[in-house]
Amino acid sequence: MQQSIYEHKGDYTLIKIRVSPNAKRSGFEGVWNGTHLKLALRAPAVDGKANEAVIDFLSDFFHVKKSQIQIISGQTNRCKIIRLDVVDLELTNHLLKLTK
């Protein structure tokens, strides 16, 4: 388990993500530098569109409401810390598969 990439904190989960905007397709592309999940997004890094796309993608991928996702660090940076207001077995299983 990669504690440096994600961490369960009581009733929420923190995930470190490195975003690559302007990609040909959106999706996870493995682990970046051993510390972040790498997320490619089609959205450009202009006017907050990439941040909106991060929330949209994570909401669909983890099957959670957009209101349960918050970018708590890195709004203007490729490296972000995301807070998901959920901790459950399905989320943990998704994260384990992504970090292997």
Describe this structure in words.
This protein is α+β, with helices and mostly antiparallel strands and 100 residues long. 25% of the residues lie in helices and 35% in strands. It is built from 2 helices and 6 strands. It starts with 5 loop residues before the first strand and ends with a helix.
Please render the helix and strand layout as text.
Elements: E1 6-9, E2 12-20, E3 27-32, E4 36-40, H1 49-62, E5 69-73, E6 79-84, H2 89-99
Parallel strand pairs: 2-4
Antiparallel strand pairs: 1-2, 2-6, 3-4, 5-6
Head-to-tail CA distance between termini: 8 Å
Rg estimate, integer Å? 12 Å
Question: Quick one: overall form?
Answer: globular
> Considering DSSP H and I runs of 4 or more, what fraction of the residues is helical?
25-40%
Characterize the largest beta sheet: strand count, sense, and whether it forms a barrel: 6 strands, mixed
Specify the CATH class.
Alpha Beta
Q: Name the CATH architecture.
A: 2-Layer Sandwich
Instruction: Classify the oligomer.
Output: single chain
At the fold tier of CATH, the topology name is: Conserved Hypothetical Protein Mth637, Chain: A
Count of individual helical segments: 2
Number of strands: 6
Tell me the β content: 35-45%
Domain module tally: 1
Structural class comes to alpha+beta
| Helix-strand sequence | EEEEHEEH
CATH homologous superfamily name?
Answer: YggU-like
Kindly summarize this structure in a few lines.
The protein has about 100 residues and is of the alpha+beta class. The protein has two helices and six strands. Helices cover about 25% and strands about 35% of the residues.
